[in-house]
Design brief:
heterodimer; A: about 140 residues; alpha+beta; 6-stranded antiparallel beta sheet; 3 helices; 6 strands; about 25% helix; B: about 110 residues; two-stranded antiparallel sheet; 6 helices
């Protein structure tokens, strides 16, 4: 990715903040790259949990198919990470792309993620085509 | 995918195929003679629904067999495309057929009569 990710006009955006813990800091003295992926996953899970009805969460689940991450600026202990996430306009079969942008307090991008999730049915653990109502939950 | 399609001739072939034909099944073998059970089931379902489709035999080249997987980031074959959009593999085709969703999709796209 070369361009900064920004949600399209009118797209539902879900936001979370993160306070790095000492365990998140690596030998370089800043938040380790793996932590951003965990935050990205936390945001996707929280977004789904906040919007989908309980019965839908019991019936459906998401598994990761692909992550693509850019790292731009460091975050250190005591700083706050501001995360935003939104989904693609449409799913593609069982795949649904999600976008995550994690900024510092000044709004500068620290990391951004494009991640592809696959919808599965909990009972069978098999992939399923993303129905329109799920797209509607996020948009 | 667009960048890759431009850079990878196999992806370019796949892009053109799914753009040129409303329903495409990338499969092992050909519709008249599938060479794996999952492809055979998928063909049977499409035939049962009476939709015209193009079957592309990925076994004709290793590049195509791998290229279709990287094109969609989807690891299994067969793969069904409707009006240029990836629908899914055999599990999804079978589930959508069972629920009536596949028939509805094809009707909505004007590919079979309601």
């Amino acid at each position: 990715m070369s361009r900064l990710l920004e949600p399209p006009e009118g797209r539902q955006v879900f936001a979370l903040t993160f306070e790095p813990t000492p365990d998140d800091i690596d030998e370089n003295g800043h938040v380790n790259n793996v932590v951003y992926l965990r935050w990205a996953q936390d945001m996707g899970v929280a977004h789904w949990a906040s919007r989908a009805p309980a019965e839908a969460q019991a019936q459906w689940a998401w598994i990761a198919l692909r992550h693509e991450i850019d790292y731009r600026r460091e975050l250190k202990l005591g700083q706050t990470a501001y995360g935003r996430t939104w989904v693609a306009e449409q799913a593609e079969g069982p795949r649904f792309d999600r976008f995550i942008r994690i900024d510092d307090a000044e709004g500068q991008m620290c990391a951004q993620v494009v991640t592809t999730w696959v919808l599965i049915e909990q009972a069978t653990r098999r992939p399923r085509r993303v129905p329109d109502w799920i797209t509607g939950v996020f948009t | 995918m667009t960048d890759a399609a431009t850079a990878n001739p196999v992806h370019g072939f796949i892009s053109k195929t799914v753009a040129d034909h409303p329903v495409v099944l990338f499969m092992k073998g050909v519709p008249e003679e599938p060479r794996c059970g999952f492809s055979a089931v998928s063909v049977q379902i499409l035939d049962h629904l009476g939709v015209d489709f193009v079957g592309v035999d990925v076994l004709q080249s290793d590049a195509l067999r791998e290229g279709i997987k990287s094109f969609t980031d989807w690891p299994t074959i067969p793969q069904l495309y409707v009006k240029g959009e990836f629908v899914g593999g055999c599990d999804i085709i079978r589930e959508m057929f069972g629920s009536g969703e596949l028939k509805t999709l094809l009707e909505e796209q004007g590919l079979i009569s309601a």
